[in-house]
């Protein structure tokens, strides 16, 4: 019993089997290798899927080079604006009694647009006319008195020469004549002043009639019958400041803002092709009228005014318009059939210029021969035909025959 209680445990039996440890390391390495293989396979599969999926691109239509128009050196946008545009207002404050205009109505210069309440103005005309008549009525009386005083002066003068009348009598007779002459002169001045007051009152009466300052089209009716109008009440109460807005449709032109860095490409008389936002297929010939000799420091632009070569009733004020400034055309280039595309669509590989053309959702790599460069456009002398869809800058890794989706 004592011998068995003093026996020690065998610690050697607790050692790890070297073969078991080696088998565990081998399993871990195997798991790592399998994981790496799975990741590589997933990457390869993803790359194949992405490569085979269609690429989204944007295209632009190759435009035919128009004979006589030159190449586009600069594009800008602006608005159609009239040189003559006026909001017709009354010169006096008054209530609108009659209104003779509607939007879209053609008016001639001097045509009556509206009439204000003229009761007070007519009363002033009548009062000033009455004052004039009173002043004029005093003239005959003073003229009679003057002639009578002049006769008395002649008689006293004769009596004085005969020593019958005294010097005092002669002086009184002369003083009376001078008095009537002064009174008559004053009345004549009063008549002139009364005439001026009559003309002023008549002008006030005329101001109650609002007329068109020039021929044009009414584009806005700004007042109604019964409303008060005044030239000095802008923004106050219910008082209007204008009757109607008139535009001279023969003075329509284009105003665009051109960046300072591009203004050197614009010259007076330069040919321009205008395209209204409302009629994108209508190409309107125009030319540069003038460059406003000042710059906008906030926008770093210079305002350019462009005149239409021929006006059309479809051109309306404040329409949005895009303009393309053209280069001067030469006969040598007119004889060469070509197209123009944005300069950014042409890619350069070594010594070759290429473009990608989209045909039935498949890319076609096309070698082209370039010509003149003007602004953002380049002339293609060979390799493209008008109407083909050329890919604009997009993914760099485009390939011939690749499937694409056009935006």
Summarize the structure.
The protein has 407 residues and is an alpha+beta fold. The protein has helices at 2-5, 18-52, 119-161, 167-206, 331-334; strands at residues 55-57, 59-61, 63-64, 72-82, 85-88, 94-99, 106-107, 112-116, 209-211, 216-221, 228-229, 244-247, 252-259, 271-276, 283-296, 301-308, 320-326, 339-342, 347-349, 352-359, 362-374, 377-382, 389-391, 404-406.
Walk me through this protein's architecture.
Helices cover 31% and strands 33% of the residues. The longest helix is centred in the middle third of the chain and has 43 residues, at 119-161. It has helices spanning 2-5, 18-52, 119-161, 167-206, 331-334; strands at residues 55-57, 59-61, 63-64, 72-82, 85-88, 94-99, 106-107, 112-116, 209-211, 216-221, 228-229, 244-247, 252-259, 271-276, 283-296, 301-308, 320-326, 339-342, 347-349, 352-359, 362-374, 377-382, 389-391, 404-406. Strands 3-18-22-21-20-19 form a six-stranded antiparallel β-sheet, with no helix packed on it. The N and C termini lie far apart (97 Å). It contains five helices and 24 strands. Residues 1-5 and 330-335 have low confidence and may be disordered. With 407 residues, it is α+β, with helices and mostly antiparallel strands. It folds into four domains: 55-69 and 336-406, conserved putative lor/sdh protein from methanococcus maripaludis s2 fold, CATH 2.40.420; 72-83 and 251-326, Elongation Factor Tu (Ef-tu), domain 3 (Beta Barrel); 85-116 and 209-247, Beta Barrel (OB fold (Dihydrolipoamide Acetyltransferase, E2P)); 119-206, Methane Monooxygenase Hydroxylase, Chain G, domain 1.
